[in-house]
Predict the 3D structure of the following.
Amino acid sequence: MVWRIFRQFIFGSTSNVLNRVIGLIGAIITARLLGPEAYGLLGIVFALTLTLNMLADSGIEQAIVHYAAGEENDLMIVWSGFIIDFFITSSAFLVNVLFAGWFAVQTQNPIKSLTILAALYLIPSAFDTWKSRLHAKKRIELLSTISVVSTIMQTSFSIALIILGFGVQGAVLGFVVARVGHTLLYMNYGFGKGEFDLKIVKQLLKYGIPNGLRNLSLYTVGRIDRLILAFFVTASDIAFYGIANMIGSMIQLLPASFSLIMLPYISEAYKNNDSHKIHGSYAAGLVIFSIWGIVSSIAVLIIAEPLILTVLGPEFLPAIIILRISIFADLMYCLFYVMTTTLDGIRQPKITLIITGAQALTTISLLTLIIPSLGIIGAAYVDVIVSIIGVILGYFYVRKQTSVKISQNLGYIKELLTVLKKGIKINSHVD
């Protein structure tokens, strides 16, 4: 079991690294081709679309993973989730189209047609239920492979269309086309015929809505700053802020992989009342990603200036100070991933909602007060403050719900490392 988790962790981590690296390279090339102002417009367009995408998130994907894990007859669960997602996502698409003109006027940018085009990105989101089915079946290798292929499609399509002279429109179209391809790949492997059940719909909503609100809160914490910034700063400033955050978020790769892989296992452990496995996974995650976060943050601080000046040019110089501030928030989120995954696995979505809700309210309040005077620098400081709040609350609630103490963590970690070492030796002999 431990070796299987480790193998999937390595595979998932590798694919996440590839996704982020390819995405970062694509963002850098796109920024160089478009320039700060046009690249900032791209960020403004997707600020609205991705916000609506999160508003449409009812948490059904997490609910499917939770209830379908270990179930042989899971199609009724998946189809019940699809009915919910399709209705909500279609509504979000209509809102995006209807408010495109208003958004363009308020942000004083010529982006109405771009915003309508970006709205097409929302439609495939309803079909992510089939991705959740694969996740519940622990098809991590397949999920990771499809994810990498999708990132390559998105990057190559967008860059190719920009080079062909389509500019920002080409970049947006590339995102949309790649999103459709991404969905078709998941459906090819996860789709199956079935029926929906109203009782299951209610069950999924009961579990999913708190998760959906939590996801919205997480989005508010992580990306609502772009939407608020769009009303107060220039498109170029948003470009500086966006590229800095993209580079800094690279250190969250391994914790993100951990949360993807560990959720089904912690959920099963909770069903089986295996507190030992839950405590051990949580303890190992905290220690491993504390070390990872510190080391990688220091590395980013060292290379920040030469990296941005070399790959983006002096016109992106303001992004350096943003990166040096926001990297501390990325360090905190390395730990936060472990805490929220543990709470999700032990069926405590309401608690994660409380934590992320507190973060979201703090984010909106501080951004509204600070951005008009401090702009993107103020937004970076807000990100750091909010991340610290999340870690403090996360640690408190995990300890309260699982009764795990710091002194116990070291014992769990030592035991897991011993088992892992044996697993590696056995695997090497088999190979």
Q: What stands out?
A: Residues 422-431 have pLDDT under 50 and may be disordered. Residues 2-430 form one domain.
